[in-house]
Amino acid sequence: MVANPPKSIAITAESHQRLWMPEQVLFTPSALDEDWGQQILARVESLGLPVQKLKQNRITGLRGETERETYTTSKRTLAVVTAPKGQFKLTPIPPSADWQFHLAQGCPAHCQYCYLAGSLQGPPVIRAYANLPEILDNLKNYENSEKITSYEVSCYTDPLGIEHLTGSLAECIRYFGSRDKARLRWVTKFDNVDNLLSLPHNGNTRCRFSINAASISRSLEGGTASVMQRLQAIRKLANSGYKIGFVIAPIMPIENWREEYTQLLDAARTVLNFDCDLTFELISHRFTPGSKGILQQWYPNSKLDLDESKRSIKRNKFGGVKYVYHKDTMKELRNFFESAIEERFPDAEILYWT
């Protein structure tokens, strides 16, 4: 429930973000052997997309002469493959959820701060998994009969960005709707939610939307729905009984950041002017030496600030390095968001700041 909700909603309606359509769709033989792979094939053929049925289970031919060429070709390609056996051994993903699983890897968006840079091996092709029923059936092995077990499905992809091509997110929502002790979590920067509104989710799925200050979204989040389109989409899901959430990320102390983030939170309050189950996740911008190198090759003209001299070094237990904002900046940002959210959304829970 929001504090002092406005009497009327002054929202300018925007049309939906245009759906991503790959220039080529590759199917491996193993993917075509799966019933879900055949379902994806029928979807992409119905959209008139060019399909290539490969003779082997390896994806080749995507590398160009430069990393930028490789990036461009890969981001225009959907490869339908089977998830490798190693993915059936789930790993924890704190603080987001107890476990992570994957229905795809790679994302059709062009965010210039992309957190997948350096996280996935090889060209950044979007890979959708054809053995989804097997993936879902494996999840029960990780459920705790004594308490609720949560699962994050958007660590390595934006599942809504490819949903029109795969139908896999809806299948996940149906699956979790049938589980008593399991909960699904996903996050997106897209807005094509209409086909999810009538699903039997039974309150077991939390739909989160990544939002940011207007200038950051406009300049650094290519190929995504606008922030207002995302807000309109989250309103639809909340009205359909879904639990919802905002992931404000990556938070950056840009010029006039207080004003811009105030406008963002005011817009969110205007859209969600009714009781709903709402959470916030607050994530400051950070990068690694490896991700910086890749991002600079992918986006050579980006205005993203990757100056290490303005950052502090944070090391993980394995010796890995991340560049984060200085302690005083982090404290100022955190205090602002916690206070501003409490003022506008007193019943919402802030799950974490990082």
Report on the architecture of this protein.
The chain has helices at residues 29-32, 35-46, 67-74, 132-139, 163-166, 168-177, 214-220, 227-239, 257-271, 289-298, 327-344, and strands spanning 24-27, 51-53, 77-81, 91-93, 97-100, 104-105, 110-111, 126-129, 149-152, 182-188, 205-211, 221-222, 243-251, 278-284, 311-315, 321-325, 349-353. Strands 4-5-9-10-11-13-14-17 form an eight-stranded mixed β-sheet. Strands 2-1-3-8-6 form a five-stranded mixed β-sheet. It has a two-stranded antiparallel ribbon with strand order 7-12. Helix 9 runs parallel beside helix 11. With 354 residues, it is α/β, with parallel strands linked by helices. Strand 4 (91-93) and strand 5 (97-100) form a beta hairpin. The model is unreliable at 1-11 (pLDDT under 50). The chain is globular. It contains eleven helices and 17 strands.
